[in-house]
Amino acid sequence: MRYEDRVERARRLLASIEKNHSPTALASSFGAEDMVVLDLIARDGLAISIFTLDTGRLPQETRDLIAEVRHRYGLDIQVLTPWPGSVDSYVEQYGIDGFYEGVDERKACCAVRKVEPLRRALAGRRGWITGLRREQADSRAALNEVEHDAATGKWKFSPLADWTNDDVWQYLRANRVPYNSLHDRGYPSIGCEPCTRAVKPGEHPRAGRWWWENAGARKECGLHEIPIRVVETVA
Fold first, then answer.
1. Does the annotation mark 110 as catalytic?
2. Fold of domain 3-195
3. pTM score, two decimals?
């Protein structure tokens, strides 16, 4: 499929979400893909809200981009943070940087700082929109544009599912969309500051996430690990 056709397909899906699945929101981490989706929503004036999860450990560059987006687009971005008591409990049990000790410890941190706030963000909504792409990781190879999460009863939409990395950057540059400055410093995937590093030439784009874990470990935080059942496709 041509780049132009992918853009138009994503626009049609977003318009369909607004019409048929409201209220649904974009869950933005303010990575490159999420900035494409955000720009498409704003460009077409869609009544789709936007939220982000502020884990308390975000890089300053991500915070700077959130401020720039608010100023440039005039959008109301909902920010959800973890419950302080839950963070305190995690720190008491594992230590402030206990996630370096093992996958279970890391996932426990993600559960407190990401997964639980996401549940609150989805309350009262029919679904959520992501910037996930199949090309990003083996764990996302079977990703579909429109899916339904049987566990929560929420729709999950990934308008860029079949986009390539080149498609993403072509869109950002052609439309002068702001993006996280860490991308220019070798960070293809950006999460919490202590859990993200730049990748080396030839490394997998996800290699910079939780890099201390075994190479074969599933590089997901838990937001996208709920079993998904496909119920709809887009023509």
1. no
2. Rossmann fold (3.40.50)
3. 0.89
